[in-house]
Amino acid sequence: MIQHSFLEILVNKLLSDDTINISNIIIVLPNKRAKVFLLDTFKSKLINYTLAPQIISVEDFIQDISKIRTIDPIELLFEFYDVYINITKKEKQQTFEQFSNWSKTLLQDFNEIDRYLLAPNHVFSYLQDIEVIKRWGIEVQDRTKLIDNYLEFWKMLPIYYDAFYKYLKNKKIGYQGLIYREAVGNLDNFISKFEKEKIIFAGFNALNNAEERIVQKLISENLASIYWDIDGVFLNDASHDAGLFVRRFKRTWPHYKNNPFEWIANDFSNQKNINIIGTSKSIGQAKIVSNLISNLIQNNPNTSLDKVAIVLSEENLLIPILHALPETVGSLNITMGYAAKNNPVQLLISNLFKMHHNAINRGEKNYVFYYKEVLQVLSNPIIESYVNATKLIEIIKRNNYTFISLQKILLLQENPNPLFLLLFQKWDTKPVEIAERLASILLIIKSNLEVISEEDKLLKTFLYAIFKVINKLISYCSKNKYIDSIETLHAIYKQIIDLAEVSFEGEPLSGLQIMGVLESRVLDFETVIITSLNEGKFPAGKAINSFIPFDVKKELELPTYKEKDAIFAYHFYHLLQRAKNVYLIYNTESDGLDGGEKSRFITQLEVEKQANHDLTHEIIQPNVPNIAFDPILVPKSELVMKRLMEIATIKGFSPSALTTYLRNPIQFYFQRVLSIRESEDVEENIALNTLGTIIHKTLEELYKPFINKNLLVDDFNTMLLLLDDEVLKQFKEIYKEGEVKKGKNLLAFEVAKRNVFNFLTEEKKQIEIGISVKILALETSVERIFEDPRLPFPIKIAGNIDRIEIRNNKIRIIDYKTGKVELKNVQIDQWNGLTLNIKNEKIIQLLCYAFMYENYCNGMEMEVGIVSFKNMKGGFLPFGFKENKEIFTTITSEILENFKTEIIILINEILDSEISFEEKV
């Protein structure tokens, strides 16, 4: 430890006191962590071997006085539920899951009442009176059952408290407050049997009433001494929160009327380098921490990092910082509570609960899973490489399995391994058996992990933490009859996981120290790096979960968020007290999950700057390029040119390919040259392009029997009768296993039927007024070799035409569009620049169809156009060329020649090796 640390001062004091035999004293510290450091300090100061003093945390010490064993919060809930069931009328009893929603808050209030030695009946009657007064004006006849039940709840609180207190006391178990209250009651008995020389309380700040009573009593009996660790700057400033509690103890404790107050340090005002650094987001903070550690090692390669502490105000920063730390960090020690719920193993267990719980709710007989929940489980990185389900995932996506039965999953998965079978096995057994199955899953995962891999070592740590949680769950299921459903099992699991922490192994006395705020108590470091110094993180927010209102707490002298802030203030300033180099890092982003204003402690340091403090403040942000987006540029290599020639001569340029290039050349490169398609995913809700395909295929099947035949009114009556069945058939063929009968898909199904119905009705009206229609082809492939001296070589133009017909002795080519198209979208008044504007894409498509079909017209006139299902009132929208207020819709050789001139420009650009594919932004 560094020179003049608090522990060093304490050890020097104890060793220099000839009246004390250190082997026969008890040293009580605020936490367990400091014990190792205190023993190491004794070791460094002692010349000869001796028996070490008994070093104990204050909680363990008070537990020894009370002779009552503490139990974990979940076990406490079960014990409380036993009491609740025994004293609550049967018709008013709640399930364990409902009970646990409010009982956790109530137990916290019981704890506070007992720790501060308040009279429980006074507190509960006070709360009941408040609730009654709130409803003072409500007449008896207007009081609802809900109000009566609510008031009954407040009336029952003292009964719950008394019964529960007696129940726990008889079993010699309890929560912290009960243990503290009993310790105060048993203090005289403890004193009479005390055999040690002395009790030393060291490094405390805030004490509750029970602790105060115990410490003062032991001091007055000359059995104890207490050594505070407070700096004069905080103690002597009446408004400084860091000294709030110790000032009161110094002022009110009778002991200090005749005895000196020990100790008041004078370290905070010494020379310090305090660097305040603002950066954006958590990753930015992790990178800065990494750079600070790198600079420390680089500037002094022989430096000892055991004098350096990284204090994390937010535990979620731990993993980013571990990944960001330089490799030159030899050893490190992590001493902080990293929540077990923040790891991939826990996500797997949560996803399994969600998947099976929802499957049961859908009906145990069929046991149907939702595809997203299945994919979440199979794609979890912990098991992805072990379940061998790649093919199954592809099948689910390809066939649009929105909901998939257990039977179907087992049928589709080839040779399922034991892990796969355990993941999907029905949860139709007792909760304890389900918990045991989860434990088996974790053991299989463990057997697949490598022993030497560093990543797998970290994963094993997480795995072990969750395995302990599942074992606790199994234990609770075995002991308690109340866990009788998946819902309750999941609720208990969530409560355990909220409290569970991941423990990391390390050497506490050497290497870089990474800790939480509470773990830093009593310890001193030369270099301190504190992260997430934002309001809501350090200090924490004002949210306090309690049934006792703020003003009542103030009156009863229970701690509120103000006292909580004072505790944080002490921890913060204690970290700085003896440090020489301090780095305070905060998030500059005030919004988002990890955002918040800069901590008040930073502002306080700046406003109350000490003369010897060298304070700097800087904002470090990642380098942002001047160009936010750099468009992709792909030169046309020999291979690309070879591929383009292959497309142009063998496959052919389709109208949609040409318009894709016009829209974005890089999209043309990816889709047409490289043949890259978007990754396949389950289409939970029917996409617009899928809906379009369904309408196209429906019309093709309905009209197919009438090809090369003049359409009659009866033909349309037949098609209208077949309409519903045909649309459903096409939905099932194209959308495969997707759900059609409910939700948005049902709406899409009805939209498809309505679109086709409206189209057929309009067509029928045309026949009724005497228009002659003969279908020549449907969804037909057409191609033509485009030869022109302006082209480098003959080009094939090829594509699919939705419909070709003869209408009143004129050939009509129709392109169906499910989107909205208006007449102005298919008309132009000049040819120049046709292929330069994406607005002309529909015109280019139509004229490509006309060019391809020109040789099949046999002298007949031809027109091309669009039928827009979102603009059925517009009817057939023909291509038109405007000239002198006249619109020409018949495709003439002149129109095609002008079109060829423009399309040649586009094709030559595509085939020009000097023009790169450039992304349009």
Q: What does this molecule look like?
A:
The structure is a single chain. The chain has 921 residues and is of the alpha/beta class. The chain is 49% helix and 15% strand. The strands form nine sheets. It has a seven-stranded parallel β-sheet. Strands 21-22-23-25-26 form a five-stranded mixed β-sheet, sandwiched between helices. A hairpin with a 7-residue loop joins strand 25 (862-868) and strand 26 (876-878). The radius of gyration is 39 Å and the shape is elongated. The two termini are 59 Å apart.
Residue windows where pLDDT falls under 50 for at least 5 positions:
none
Question: What is the total tally of β strands?
Answer: 29
Which strand-content bin applies to the residues? 5-15%
Q: In DSSP terms, counting alpha (H) and pi (I) runs of 4 or more, how many helices?
A: 34
Nearest-integer average pLDDT: 90
Specify the biggest β-sheet: 7 strands, parallel
Q: What gyration radius follows from the Cα positions, in whole Å?
A: 39 Å
Q: Summarize the amount of helix as a percent range.
A: 40-55%
Widest sheet: strand ordering: 11-16-10-17-18-9-19
Question: What is the 3D shape?
Answer: elongated
Which structural class matches the secondary elements? alpha/beta
How far apart, in Å, are the first and last alpha carbons? 59 Å
Record the SSE blueprint.
Elements (H helix, E strand, L loop, with lengths): L5 H11 L8 E5 L4 H12 L8 E4 H9 L2 E2 L2 H15 L8 H20 L4 H15 L10 H27 L1 E2 L1 H10 L1 H6 L5 E5 L6 H12 L3 E4 L2 E2 H4 L8 H9 L11 E2 L6 E8 L1 H19 L8 E5 L5 H7 L7 E4 L2 E2 L4 H19 L5 E3 H8 L5 H4 L2 H9 L4 E3 H7 L5 H7 L6 H18 L5 H26 L6 H14 L1 E2 L9 E5 L10 E5 L18 H7 L4 H17 L3 E7 L12 H8 L5 E7 L13 E2 L3 H14 L3 H9 L1 H9 L14 H16 L9 H22 L8 H26 L4 E14 L8 E13 L2 E8 L9 E2 L12 H13 L8 E7 L7 E3 L1 E4 L2 E3 L4 H19 L5 E2 L3
Parallel strand pairs: 1-2, 1-5, 3-4, 5-6, 7-8, 9-18, 9-19, 10-16, 10-17, 11-16, 17-18, 23-25, 24-27
Antiparallel strand pairs: 12-15, 13-14, 20-29, 21-22, 22-23, 25-26, 27-28
